[in-house]
Design brief:
The chain is of the alpha/beta class and 212 residues long. Helix 6 links the parallel strand 2 and strand 3. The chain is 39% helix and 22% strand. It has a 7-stranded mixed sheet. It has a single domain, classed as Vaccinia Virus protein VP39 (Rossmann fold). Belongs to the methyltransferase superfamily. RNA methyltransferase RsmG family. Its EC number is 2.1.1.170.
Amino acid sequence: MEVAEPPVLDAAGYQALTGASDVQIADLARFQELLAEWNEVMNLVGPLTIATYWTRHALDSSQLLDLAPEANTWADLGAGAGLPGVVLAILLKGRAGAKVHLVESMAKRCRFLEVVAKDLDLPVQIHNARAEDLKLKVEIVTARACAPMTKLLGFAEPYLRSGATGLFLKGQDVATELSEAAKAWKFDAELRPSQSDPRGRIVQVKGLTRVR
């Protein structure tokens, strides 16, 4: 069975697909510039993915808002390159009460996030800390390319146990990851299709307890 190729978008195509405003497109384009600039000296994303930024990074991140359009408070675990957290913050900028917590344990990546947040005047709070050490009350906890599900659920446990819903961006091996995670955790999971890659999935997680 053939798998459809993901869409190849430029800024105009992304705007037509998502309905993003001109201001949001300008901010997203500026983020692309900063990501490319810092990627020259720091391993943030695969270099070849900069060319497919509007699909691989912008759309991949922003599709989460379609699943939680009313959510104002988010936590992005292992926020490193600002994906999906910075993209979400760009789209939430100007909304009353909106805040995205960018949680990143590596100090040098936090410096990148600080530069981006200041440049784009984003509603974010940056935490140079391990995700599982924080007690943040948020509506949505998310992550992309952070860790396999078993370990990721451990990082997200404080947030999920405080009532957050998990929206985790995963690739084609998600079923295997979930099977492994079920050995250590009890949780309710629903798989949603990815707009940016037909092989990818968004894992919606509610409720989390450790297997005794």
